[in-house]
TrEMBL record:
Coiled coil: none annotated. One of its GO terms (biological process) is methylation. NCBIfam families: ogt. The keyword Nucleotidyltransferase does not apply. It comes from Polaribacter porphyrae. This is Cysteine methyltransferase.
Amino acid sequence: MTKNDNFFDKVYDVARQIPFGRVTSYGAIATYLGSARSARMVGWAMNNSGNQQPEVPAHRVVNKKGLLTGKHHFDGTNLMQQLLESEGIKVIDNQIQDLDTVFWNPMNEL
DNA sequence: ATTGTGACGTTGC
DNA sequence: TGCAACGCCACAA
């Protein structure tokens, strides 16, 4: 932690900028950061997101398919889905509905 | 320095 | 159109 996790920090920063009721994909963030091929790294960064003080809305970050792939990493089993549903996002079987509508593209907004 | 892994994405068949 | 395999970058051991 002594070093500035440039990549990680950026991921957290973008994730925190996700508006309420919106979601984004790892690839979108990775692409915005310039490392479109590091989509996996974005997810890896989320691993430490819980360690970050400004709690990163990792529940708003899903894969391109809108699938809650990382929900397994949350406390509960359906916690991530509960959070998304609380924001008005319809999630069925770990799959976000109307993804095109709730999708938030950092490149488009930022 | 090398190897392995990972909450993904894209291309190929 | 659906499923499989590869690629890829960054971090940890």
